[in-house]
Amino acid sequence: MTQSDAYLSRFMALHPKKIDLSLERIEALLAKLGHPERKVPPVIHVAGTNGKGSTIAFMRAALEAAGYGVHVYTSPHLVHFHERIRLAAPKGVSGGGRLVDEDRLVEAFEACEKVNDGAPITFFEITTAAAFKLFADNPADVLLLEVGLGGRMDTTNVIDRPLVSVIASISQDHADFLGTDIAGIAREKAGILKPGSPGVIYPQIDEVRAVIEAVAAKVGAPLIIGGQDFDVHEENGRLVYQDESGLLDLPLPRLSGRHQHRNAGLAIAALRSQSLFHMKDAHFEKAMQTVEWPARLQRINQGAIPALLPAGSEIWLDGGHNVDGGRVLAEALAELEERRPRPLVLVTGMLTTKDSDGFLHNFSGLAREVHTVPIEHSSAARSPEEVALAARHAGLAARPHASLEEALRAIASEAFTVAPRVVLTGSLYLAGEVLAFNGTAPK
């Protein structure tokens, strides 16, 4: 166990609930720390159900291509907690930002633990306070800040005047905290909108859009709306973006799937909505070619997993875990099937807090079979037998396994006339275990 792991274990014991949406505790802790959230670089704040991390990844790639120093805060992590906090490279150091190192992370944890003095506070709250301290103590030009859950009462929503507020795709997820009413969910997400700061929103269904527009009008946030004020589409193997400032003709994004085209468009719109950072067409072009975001239709070409599967297998990892995430993943896989037909095999593990039936129904008629596996490091994991039953309810052949390795060996033992397309999906927690098993943790 590392020193930071020891702090994280202690932080888990400070509150009986893993999630308790409130701003009181984080505001009190930040005050004791001297309000680091008021000393961070200009903030682009990003909420939404799906696509938040990908949108941030596109913005980071474009800003770094323009030479700016970028801090990034995202969650959850996949393998190591350090993935949540990326610090801008010091001035004069080439290359983009790096994940926070152990020493600086421990120093921030120590400061937070000391001033908190054992008071009740959630894991996400105290670790977010540590992140704000790190972002305040290390210089950068901009901070890309991802909402943890919801928006209005999310721990990150202590920024009074963001440079831009961004709302990615909204659908149902985290029903135990946000409910199942899509209008209510949209209202929570729109809670990051602030007076005078532009709000840039993904193309939403009418009901969601109407709620966001009402919240924006109430707080005085000008809106830039996807599908109305900007648009993006594929044309002749290129990504075409257009808004009132003109048209961009860009390479297709390095991240796979048409949904990533829309996330790229959202990122471009967000950066073009502000005037603090000067963005050229070339910066967006480079971003499309260099963007990275692990476990979102990530191709796995090396490591322990390819060595276990049949030679020539096409292997993908995707952390999709809700119904809408399953839909966009299935659409991307259907496109792959049209271009390069292969037997599709899913390796899936899911949490009890997710709609496994709804998620897996997206793959009915597309996947040949589903191999279900446990998620070893989550107390909320469904058993492989439960997930296999959900797959069968969706009309899919399914086999439960005691471990990821057992599932991979079972696939390897099957007779395929064409090497399969194997997709590991269903949970970001499973994605983390896959990357750890494969020996390719994010860096």
Q: Based on the structure given, which CATH architecture of the largest domain is correct? A: 3-Layer(aba) Sandwich
- Low-confidence segments, ≥5 residues, pLDDT <50? none
Oligomer: single chain
Mean pLDDT: 95
Largest sheet: 8 strands, mixed
- The 3D shape can be described as globular
Total separate domains = 2
Domain Mur ligase C-terminal: 314-427
Enzyme class: ligase
Pathway: Cofactor biosynthesis; tetrahydrofolate biosynthesis; 7,8-dihydrofolate from 2-amino-4-hydroxy-6-hydroxymethyl-7,8-dihydropteridine diphosphate and 4-aminobenzoate: step 2/2; Cofactor biosynthesis; tetrahydrofolylpolyglutamate biosynthesis
Pfam families: Mur_ligase_C (PF02875), Mur_ligase_M (PF08245)
Describe the 3D structure.
It is built from 16 helices and 17 strands. The longest helix has 17 residues. By secondary structure, the chain is of the alpha/beta class. The chain folds into two domains: 288 residues, UDP-N-acetylmuramoyl-L-alanine:D-glutamate ligase, CATH 3.40.1190.10; 141 residues, Alpha-Beta Complex (Protein-Tyrosine Phosphatase, Chain A). An eight-stranded mixed beta sheet has the order 4-3-2-5-1-6-7-8, with helices on both faces. The chain has a six-stranded mixed beta sheet with strand order 12-13-17-14-15-16, sandwiched between helices. A three-stranded antiparallel beta sheet has the order 9-10-11, with helices on one face. The radius of gyration is 21 Å and the shape is globular. The model has no long low-confidence stretch (mean pLDDT 95). Helix 1 packs parallel to helix 4 and helix 2 packs parallel to helix 5. It is 39% helix and 16% strand. The two termini are 19 Å apart. Keywords: ATP-binding, Folate biosynthesis, Ligase, Magnesium, Metal-binding, Nucleotide-binding. Belongs to the folylpolyglutamate synthase family. Its EC number is 6.3.2.12, 6.3.2.17.
